[in-house]
Amino acid sequence: MQSKPNPSSYRLIFSEVEEIGWQVLLRASPDLSSLAVNLRDEKGRSHVLEIALPWDYPLSSPSLSSDVPYMCELEWSDGSKLRDVVQQFTEHLQKLQEFWSTMDEIDKILCVLYPKKPSLAMSHRQISIGNDCSLLLYINACKPRSLPECRWFGPDSSIEMISKKWKRNYRKWKTDGPFHENLETLLEIELPKSSVSGSSKSDEQLDCGICYAHCLPVDEELGDCSGGEPDYTCDNPSCSKAFHAVCLQDWLRSISTTRQSFDVLFGNCPYCSEPVAVKLNGGKCSSIIQCFVWQLPFLFRYSGLVFSSHKLIHQLR
Amino acid sequence: MTSTSSPSRKALSKIACNRLQKELVEWQVSPPAGFKHKVTDNLQRWVVEVVGAPGTLYASETYQLQVDFPEHYPMEAPQVIFLHPAPLHPHIYSNGHICLDILYDSWSPAMTVSSVCISILSMLSSSTVKQRPADNDRYVKNCRNGRSPKETRWWFHDDKV
């Protein structure tokens, strides 16, 4: 059993919070076993530091967590207080500035495919390098300006060429040079840059839950759908997964439980298993079918069939 | 029709290729606990090392899973088998074939290599006895011509393990 803190330990924690200032305190658990403080670094980025206080605080050191690539080793001795925690963490933030400015530089200049919304702790970026190839970079948070660890993705032939160049040139990496210029020197190519149009960048791009891509490949086989964006969303509000209608059709057609009525496939969402109905060949439903579908509830009501037709209408609207 | 232990090696479709690249990136960034992807240049066949979870019958034993992807992944399930030696388990045949519904009838494109691996590890972890399936010899004999487990009509009799 862990013993309950006595009133004096509450008083101690209060006075220590007083010292660091109540304005930085974001939240505290009712038993004061965990605190969250909001700190700003020199670039104005805001960092939430979660501080878990052990029951025998301040005898044992608190444990820290925050959205950082790695956490500082907390030095804790007899007279240590919350003030020291904040101070040590602030120094740690200082140390990480170069890492974050490197990541910012990558995000701002290069064409980052993933993650779309990186957290401050993420030290990887997948960037497009053109010709259907991409590069996954792992930035060393301790030495952000050094040669990053990489993995290549793309057609074998191109990858082979790129990795050859990389091996030939990697010594040319300059720890004091701009990151993207270093990459360009090593790869002997000009890298695709991020699309500056701010509006399109801030729009969250939804990827299809089946093929994981935003745009379908450009392919004659896909006809009108070639290069298309997700155009079907699961109706279940707690799922709302986006799909390319063609991907969903392909999936529904590959399993035996799917039923087809006229040119509509009835099956289940691969994510939430709720019923879905997709019109074949995508696109908008023709007006004749639409008229017919609008009649469906009445037809079924009068023929005495139990059939949930509202789903169908919803999908075809 | 003849078949081989590796599924018909038709090259991955564009869609399959793209999706697998994304799965691989996701795996590199946050691999499922207890698994290691053996780095190769082959996107269509992954070899994954799995370590038995602590506190289970297979604790700290290492096995290898071979994951082969069909041309139209993820519309079709990947073929997942244990490479020799396969763990002793009531649902794993000595030829490495695994009796697990999500690899066959219950596959859905919402699953990933990573989620399949986690299911296999949890199947291992929940086993209370190290033994082969009752029909092991008959099944393995039937597969001698190199039949893929995906051609087996599986009967999933047990949802506890």
Record the SSE blueprint:
The complex is a heterodimer of chains A (317) and B (161).
Chain A: H1 7-20, E1 25-28, E2 34-40, E3 46-52, E4 63-66, H2 82-109, E5 112-114, E6 124-130, E7 133-138, E8 149-153, H3 156-169, H4 179-187, H5 198-202, E9 232-233, E10 242-243, H6 245-253, E11 259-261, E12 264-268, E13 275-279, H7 287-303, H8 310-316
Chain B: H1 14-29, E1 35-38, E2 45-51, E3 62-68, E4 79-82, H2 113-125, H3 136-142
Antiparallel strand pairs in B: 1-2, 2-3, 3-4
Structural features, described:
The complex is a heterodimer of chains A (317) and B (161). With 317 residues, chain A is an alpha+beta fold. Chain A has 8 helices and 13 strands. In chain A, the strands form 4 sheets. Chain A has a 4-stranded antiparallel beta sheet, covered by helices on one side. A 4-stranded antiparallel beta sheet of chain A has the order 5-6-7-8, with helices on one face. The longest helix of chain A is centred in the first third of the chain and has 28 residues, at 82-109. Chain A starts with 6 loop residues before the first helix and ends with a helix. The model of chain A is unreliable at 197-203 and 283-317 (pLDDT under 50). By secondary structure, chain B is α+β, with helices and mostly antiparallel strands. Chain B has one domain: Roll (Ubiquitin Conjugating Enzyme), CATH 3.10.110.10. In chain B, 22% of the residues lie in helices and 14% in strands. Chain B is built from 3 helices and 4 strands, in the order H-E-E-E-E-H-H. The termini of chain B are far apart. The A-B interface holds A 114, 124, 126, 134, 136, 151, 153-154, 156, 159, 209-213, 216-217, 219, 247, 250-251, 254, 270-271 and B 14-15, 18-19, 21-25, 28-29, 41, 72, 74-76, 108-110.
